[in-house]
Amino acid sequence: MTYIVEIDEAACAAHGDCVELAPEVFELDDVAHVIGDGPDDLLLAAAEACPSSAIRILDRETAEAIYP
Amino acid sequence: MVRAMAQTSGADGIVIVGGGLAGQRCAEALRRHGYDGALRIVCAEPRRPYDRPPLSKEMLAGSCDEDSLAFKTAGWYEERSIDLLLGVHATGLDLAQRRLGVSEGRPLAYRQLVIATGSIPRGLPLLEGYENVSALRSVDDCLALREVLAGRPRLTVLGAGFIGQEVAATARSLGAQVTMIEAAPAPLASVLGRELGSWFTRLHTAEGVEVLTDCTVTDALSNGHVQALRLSNGRTVDTDHVVVGIGVRPDVGWLAGSPIASPGGIEASPAGHTVAPGVYAIGDAAATFDPVVGGHLPGSHWEAASRQAGRCACVMLGLDPGPAELTSFWTDQYGIRIQYLGHAQLADAVEIDGNPDVRNFSVTFTRAGRPVAGLLVDRARELPRLRTAIEQGET
% helix / strand / coil in chain B, to the nearest 5? Predict the structure, then answer.
């Protein structure tokens, strides 16, 4: 759990792929919201699955951008 | 918000006609923004609103089931007091009396109406009435085609738009012998131009699809079933099944005679306003004004419908809908994600970064040196940067 996940609300189109992959991490309204935490590889998979590339992954310690 | 409620509540409340993505998203947003009046969704299909993109991909391939397509559970609608009228279609509209005619029961009175009836696949008159010719729009269409594909048929796909390409890709992965026929010189040539469009020809060809461009169907040879198609280039293609994916037309025939009706779709603002007070049109049923192009464009894609629905809900409640987003769409084929953003038709130059031959590249369309659109192939990471660049007009 070294990653932090953020949603770019302007980019999110509420596709819902992230919620499907990680329902304990994401919740869907008109945009997705982060509601929990999950393993790093799950967060990364959700970010890569997003058709709008609206999920940002940062390193918890260094705030370095992991994705995109 | 209090003022917004006073304008919109009332015994008859809001009626949304159309149970697709746009109607569903509009209902979600209305409730989320605090609308607590009556809310009814008229759905022509006998199913709760569901997501269509998987119909040409996961659902067709058999890797997801029907239940997983539904946007929400039945309980979700109950909890929010949203009435779903399933298997009911609109039959007419009385603007003066604010009543929607429906196929079952009395006309529905409304304070505000959202028209989100979507679109209908265009047919080819030459191929109408044959059992082994189909379109792909609904779950039923998908299940029927899935059964056909299980027999590894010789499949002919007419039209190399997104549906056609996705069906071709999925059918190939299931072992069908696929021929895709396109009237234009290349797939998506009208959006991306001929040169980039021909990249899609190469993509499908490399995956074993026979792609025939610059030709149309002139005749069908049949014995009750279509057995072969004769093409304008002189070729004859033997076939077991034909999928027609030559585009859609707005499902607005039920509005015939109404002043808001137009064959190209109901003219609407980016937030769905029509010329009729209290009546909104969103998604594929609408021809939405595009401020960049300066005209009304036909409904097109999933993201546009979803976002327009959210903006529409805001303006119905007197809230600020925010700015309209850039046109965008995506498609998944052969395990590659392809994303597009902006207005390529405005461009006067094209820059390519990467190697199209290894299916990993990005294209920036520019006008007078400023980015107006982009195409990303297996480069999802670049989308945020591209979006910013186009929005700010900088490279």
Answer: 30, 30, 40
pLDDT in tens, B100-152: 999 999 999 999 999 999 999 999 999 999 999 999 999 999 999 999 999 99
Q: Chain A contacts of B382, Cβ < 8 Å?
A: 53, 68
Residue A2 CA, chain-centre distance (Å), reads 14
H helices within B123-246, ranges in order? 139-150, 162-173, 189-192, 194-206
Q: Which residue of A has its CA nearest to B51?
A: A15
User: Please, which residues 362-391 of chain B have a Cβ atom closer than 8 Å to chain A?
Assistant: 380-385, 387
Return the CATH number of A3-67, one of 3.40.50.300, 1.10.150.240, 3.30.70.20, 3.30.470.20: 3.30.70.20
Spell out which residues of chain A touch residue B29, defining contact as CB-CB under 8 Å.
Answer: 30
State the best of B337, B383, B391 to mutate against chain A, taking most chain A CBs within 10 Å. B383
Is the ipTM beyond the 0.85 threshold? no
Q: How many domains does chain B contain in total?
A: 3
Task: Name the domain boundary from B244, B275, B305.
Answer: B244
